[in-house]
Design goal:
Length: about 325
């Protein structure tokens, strides 16, 4: 092979290598033990003195060129590998996909709004078990054995003692048994009733409130309810306090708000002054302390605020509804 011609061909071959692996193949082809350069060197011994010298100078130059070309090309591929593993390349001209962020469910948002209102009044957020003993859910709350809410139509019983709590009022008892007044608590949570139609769901959320101290009176309760509802509905609303009955409060009231569209009064919550029998059950002296309590259904006030007619739509995870509360 003519040496001048061959170096062009070899350099071209090196240049064509697409990766380090191919470079190594070319390297052993030309610089290896049985490679091109070594084979050429072997020919030296048959040459005369003058040609020996010229030939070896040429072959050494070629060898150096090959070594250098392979070295540079390898360096290039190594730097490429390092930079691609360390740096991300962004093509700013590419179109982007609209990122769809999730958001809190309107039930969670509303519970958070209620929590933050009552936290400002100094209330502690408390939770209780959803599987409850009948003592906390009924007995200690002064709900008599023959009360309709105890029977199989309303309550999901596990056995004769345990049930899925039907109201967060059960947590009032748990807290008052453990803690001496003053007590200021808010209890958000799930409750369960065997009932299902447009306005009832077998599982729904309630928030319970309880304040016990030395001079808690009816005006305190009324002020709290009025301000809480104004804060929740975020507009001036007409409300009325209607006398009612709950076994664990006396006197008891229900609060209604006036719906401008239907021109009807709609019930939003129940409340009252803690019944002395309840205080006796938890060993709090009713002559020394008084308390007020209230309870409301979260889904119900959401439906009233946003004019939702079917409670089930709140649990369907339909994006068309969820997106409206981002
Ligand atoms: N627990 C009642 C219910 O589920 C709501 C309620 C009414 C709670 C009056 C109270 C209260 O604390 O004082 O219907």
């Amino acid at each position: 092979m003519c040496v001048q011609k061959s170096i062009k061909k070899i350099l071209f071959e090196i240049n064509q290598c697409k990766n380090i692996y191919e470079l190594n193949l070319v390297k052993s082809k030309y610089l290896g033990k049985n490679g091109y350069i070594n084979n050429e060197i072997k020919k030296i011994k048959i040459l005369d003195k003058e040609r020996k010298k010229n030939f070896s100078i040429k072959i050494n130059k070629i060898k150096k060129k090959i070594i250098n070309a392979i070295f540079l090309k390898k360096k290039f591929y190594i730097s490429l590998k390092n930079s691609s593993s360390q740096r991300r390349f962004f093509d700013v001209s590419l179109s982007y996909q609209d990122m769809k962020n999730g958001s809190l469910h309107i039930v969670t948002q509303s519970i958070n709004k209620i929590k933050s209102f009552f936290e400002k009044l100094g209330c502690e957020i408390v939770f209780g078990p959803e599987i409850e003993h009948k003592y906390y859910n009924f007995d200690a709350l002064n709900i008599k054995k023959n009360h309709p809410s105890r029977n199989f139509q309303d309550t999901f019983w596990f056995n004769k003692d345990y049930l899925l709590r039907t109201q967060t009022s059960s947590v009032q008892i748990r807290v008052m048994k453990k803690k001496k007044p003053p007590i200021r608590i808010i209890v958000p949570g799930k409750v369960y009733r065997n009932d299902s139609d447009l306005t009832h769901s077998p599982m729904f959320h309630q928030v319970e409130g309880l304040i016990v101290d030395k001079n808690i009176n009816f005006s305190n309760l009324k002020w709290i309810m009025e301000n809480f509802l104004l804060n929740f509905f975020e507009e001036k609303i007409k409300m009325r306090f209607r006398s009612s009955y709950f076994p664990f409060t006396t006197p008891s009231m229900e609060v209604d708000i006036f719906d401008k569209n239907s021109r009807k009064w709609l019930e939003v919550l129940g409340c009252g002054m803690v019944h002395p029998f309840v205080f006796q059950n938890v060993k709090i002296n009713p002559y020394k302390y008084s308390g007020c309590a209230f309870g409301l259904g979260i889904e119900r006030i959401i439906m009233l605020k946003y004019k939702i007619s079917d409670i089930r739509s709140l649990f369907k995870n339909d994006l068309r509804l969820l997106k409206q509360f981002k």
